[in-house]
Amino acid sequence: MSRPSYGTGSAWARELLDQLRPAGRDLNRLIAWLARSTGSAVRLQDARGHLLAEAGERPALDPAVVADVAAGRVSAAALEDGTRHVRLVGIRHPGPDPAASAVLAVARPEPFDRHTTDILGHTAGVLELLLRERELANAGYRLRRATADLRLAILQLLMVEDIVSARRVAAGLWPGLLEKDTARVYVIEGTVAERDRLADECGAATSGGALVVRCPAMDEHVIVLGPATEVEERLRSLVAVRPGTYLGGSPRQRLALTATAYGQAVTALAVARFSPERTAVYAERTRPARLMDPAALHAWSAAVLRPLDTLPYHVRAELLATTRLGLEFTAVSTAKVLGVSRNTVRARMDRVAALLGADFSALAVRAVAHIALNTEAAHGPYDPEGNAPATPTGFADLLGGDALRAWAESLLGRLDTDGRDLRGTLRAWLAADANAGPAAAARGVHAQTVREHVRAAEPVLERRLLAGGTDLYEVVLAHLVTGELPVPALGTANRDQADAAVHR
Fold first, then answer.
1. Three-class SS string for 254-268?
2. Could you tell me the superkingdom of the organism this chain comes from (predicted)?
3. How many percent of the chain have pLDDT more than 90?
4. CA 78 to CA 80: how far, in whole Å?
5. Residue 3 has pLDDT above 60, yes or no
């Protein structure tokens, strides 16, 4: 292998310095330059023998000598096998450790003269800088990854109402972040390719005053939990200058209701996609539970959930938090948000269903359970001393109020003006537990017609139906109030497939 002829100047030195320019910092490029400049075959490997870069025919190396150089017992070695001259140079770590981070091997047919020795020595110095830079970059990446994992762990602890542990984890890196008892949750949607940049910009915009997490369930989403009031304003400003980005936010909630706030932010995000400002906050429209007698509703909820009261507090909180999320989202999404397997989500929900004597495969049962769970989440335990009345109001009695009936009839009455009988199709679809096939058979139409009618009902009712969750359960409740669906009875626990939707 021939090498370029350099004059008495320092052209090779200038070329070597070019390897340190930001656009030229590449190990393969530098090794290829060294091979050309010295007429050699070159190999760069790490201390464990893994190839980092090479150019030319791979030189045969004495393992024992390589091990000595890698361990720092010798800093360099010169070998000759009769046909080739080989130089081994240890690329050292900075610091007192004598071990090398890499070993550079250069083999050529001619002996190493002063010129090639100078090039080799200076190149080893440049390699040390590049390898150190790469090591620092890798360390920085690992640190960012660990920090991101900590943020996610804090969010997951909040999701299952383990506020004490969440505060302990957060205290070391983000002191004061969770010192308040309330916060808002925001979900920002961008593109998968830009999510890391978007997350960094969210962190910069909130100046460390918010918990910024890359959503484990949706690759386009960034979750932001912000105790401070100015977080929303800063996120809105960020979205305003980023086309194709959307922001959904929750109202202020207790930290124990982080899972509820997250669901509200996701709901608001769907509205933001159609908003000119591309932002929306969850609208506190009239919720049907607010139209029920509050004392009776709370007592009923406590009676429904009483079978769980014998569990240890942290187990009970974990089961209920998982079930609340599972009733809003699919098993897969719930598992990703909580950092557990979907089988764990299923097992927790099955345990709750068994304790409550509820059949979660029935849509109306899920809707009623959703009210019970969220009533306790919003208002806390009804009777911590265990003195609740033995015969609390039944759920059917809670549905008999005039205000609730007026709400239900007004909501469903919006569908009556459509000539396609959307109301009848929707009623059949809900009676079939939101399955288009049985609903189509009951109506004598095609399943696609059922799905089209349900989609057509969504903007009329101003609620998402096919996505499931709170909006769907409200429409189910309206049908229970008007008597178009029977009030559900308790049944056996749900044992669906592990990869099926929790709320379908």
1. EHHHHHHHHHHHHHH
2. Bacteria
3. 40
4. 7
5. no
